[in-house]
Amino acid sequence: MSLLLATLPLPAARPQRVVSQSVGTDELLLALADPGQIAALSHISHEAEFSPVAEEAKRFPAITDSDAESVLRFRPDLVLAASFSRPETLALLKRAGVRLVVLDRFDTLEDVYASLRILGRELGQEGRAEGIIAQCRARVEALAARLKGVKPVRVLSAGLYPFTAGIGTTFQDLCDHAGALNVAAEAGLKGHAPTPSEKLLVWNVEVLVAAGDVNIRTRLGELPFYRVLPAFKAGRVVVIPDPMMSSVSHHRIATYEALAQALHPERFR
Predict the structure, then answer these.
(1) pTM (2 decimals)?
(2) CA–CA distance, 30 with 150 (Å, rounded to integer)
(3) Terminal-residue alpha carbon distance, the chain
(4) Residue 176, burial from CB neighbour count under 10 angstroms (0-12, 13-18, 19+)
(5) Is the pLDDT of residue 117 over 80?
């Protein structure tokens, strides 16, 4: 996340009725704002299946849907959204004269730092944003020190949909920090691309990385192109909970640490 789309200059006072429309902006808002600044969070913020901050989020109201009417019901003086929000919703919020911040870059940790600074400035919490960034940098540096000199493990992002993650994705960012080599990126795939099932055997995949719960292993085994892979046959599948894998905030660092520990357990003894 890094791009600010707002039509008004910064407010003279800190906003006091902030509504977040997406899980990613929920995570950032909860980290940066004073509790009294938060009017409502996204409609799935309370659901642990999707939100890594569900327990904390339950202290605050949630909008009933992501549409403009649900947002405006809370009389916001600032709305936080992501670029994948419905365009018609964003258009209606702008038409209503609501101050709107839309974040649109999610791929790297530098994008996260940029988003923290943007929202820190909007919320009047610049110091808090810089403090979080400093904590993040310290954790990332500590993890890099643990992994120094490791041989990257050849991994593939595996899922039930026929797509895998290549260059320019949050999965690539995860690999960059966890001692992993993304074989799809090595093969030149960009973004989320169709899984080239006929090529997987020659990619020498050592570990499959999947988002989900313990049942995901069984379900992956129902797909022929995973079932035939030596890595799958040997049980080399790392499962990351969905909220961790999909996080586009500073909480993704916990995902770096989890994958690194799964791939390089000898460095964490």
Answers:
(1) 0.90
(2) 35
(3) 34
(4) middle
(5) yes
